[in-house]
Amino acid sequence: MNAPLNIIMPAEASAAPGTYRLLIDGKHVDARDGRTLERKSPGHGFTVSHYAQAGEAEVEAAVQAAHKAFETGPWPRMKAAERAAILLKTADLIEARLEDIARLDALESGKPIAQARGEIGGAVDIWRYAASLARTLHGESYANLGDAMLGVVLREPVGVVSIITPWNFPFLIVSQKLPFALAAGCTAVVKPSEMTSASTFVLGDILMQAGVPAGVVNILAGLGADVGAPMVSHPLVEMVSFTGSTRVGKMTMASAAQSLKKVSMELGGKNGQIVFPDADLEAAADAAVFGGFFNAGECCNAGSRLIVHEAIADDFLSTVKALTARVTVGDPLDDRTKVGAMISSDHLAKVTDYVAAAASNGSSVYSGGKQLASNAGQYLDPTIIRGVTEDMAIAREEVFGPVLSVLTFESIEKALHIANNTPYGLSAGVWSASIDTCMLVARNVRSGTVWVNTFMEGYPELPFGGYKQSGLGRELGKRAVEDYTEEKTIQFHRGQRTGWWVG
Ligand code: NAD
């Protein structure tokens, strides 16, 4: 029996919690009914933040402010170079506050601080990338329609965008959406998760400091049903950019369909890493552990299924198990931590229920499987389940915890069948020294991203999104700004009327 984790209380535990007010039309305001939400650190147990809790009245005010800023304000009308300058300044200001923001995300979500720093650094890079796209966004012209006609296709900002984000990458995910919407000239109402809103409010302050005009970005904390739902159904909202679960994504799309809004959906995943015997097995084992346990498995891209060739399964898994034993689980604020706290005790119970169900259905817990004893917070031992079959819930559903399900194959066809046999299609990995094997897998896996001899790297230049029930549309990449635009076709005619109708 291991000693209980000893979680050290940080200075924040004895200070007053951070308080965050809603950002509407450039002003910080409380909710009209005075309600607030409290967030406790899942890694330590003390209260980190209080947010003003919005409701329908605040959604109305925020959408009206965004609409006014879009219809009459300077943001959509200024030169792209001016918008780009503000996005670049935003990136610099985020960079200057990187440590504070990373600490807030680590405290509210339970993720390791070193990882949080990497995410905020990644977000800075995305804001800079979006600034470059603001200046290169352009339409098309057609001078090949005859001498009397010039066709021009404009890219215009779509309007007010509702941006709804989850708790697992609070600052990074808003940074995959908002800078591109802003680069296009849109205005926005943003709702972070009710569990991890603090860093998004800091972003709101930074945006105002950088010179984003009042009303262009409005930020609301609140619950999905009270705030998210009216942000989706509101008639003045033209587009919904949602990241979260497939379940809520479907509800959101159904609601957005009532007024035919544009939607962008980044949803769940059940991603497989396929390991062939000729792979660099040391690297593949490290990536298997990383894929399974990064962000405590609370990651849409988690490599939650390890699909390994039968011929190497025993040896490979004993390497994976040995590496797993070296993964440091514990205090999110400790620089050495690789796996921090689970987001909530309810979520931890859901994950351990999956493990228990798998164990009673014929598979076996090969490593971990238990909540770790600790003086504070909620932590789960990284878990490996062997003998998983394709029909089991743990092989098909998104567990969203540090749980690696192992399935085996004897042929490439079987490996592909397993990889594709889920309702999801977000990402996949393949490990082999053979270009033929890698290419065959990469071409036949039904997912938005395939990593070949690497796993879970991300670059703003590369589009990201899901096949099947993992989503709709793509974020990042050179077309990320276009997603927040409408195309307008203008036909310029000169000279005599062509094709007289009446005569
Ligand atoms: P969730 O779907 O429960 O919540 C996401 C957001 O939607 C939250 O802000 C929530 O308050 C809001 N919401 C809830 N009900 C709503 C409603 N009726 N109308 C509008 N908004 C509503 O997801 P979560 O638990 O916060 O996040 C985990 C999920 O997010 C996982 O499924 C994960 O795979 C997914 N995710 C996907 C990606 C991706 O890029 N594909 C990235 C990160 C997370």
Q: How do the strands of the widest beta sheet line up side by side?
A: 15-18-19-14-13-21-22
Q: Proportion of β residues?
A: 15-25%
Largest sheet: 7 strands, mixed
**Which compounds are bound in this model?**
nicotinamide-adenine-dinucleotide
Helix-strand category? alpha/beta
Low-confidence stretches: none
- Integer average pLDDT: 97
Cα-based radius of gyration, to the nearest Å = 24 Å
Tally of helical runs:
15
Terminus-to-terminus distance: 94 Å
Organism: Mesorhizobium newzealandense
Protein name: Aldehyde dehydrogenase family protein
Domain Aldehyde dehydrogenase: 30-490
Keywords: Oxidoreductase
Short key terms for the protein model shown above:
single chain; 503 residues; alpha/beta; seven-stranded mixed sheet; six-stranded mixed sheet; 15 helices; binds nicotinamide-adenine-dinucleotide; Aldehyde_DH_dom; Aldehyde dehydrogenase family protein
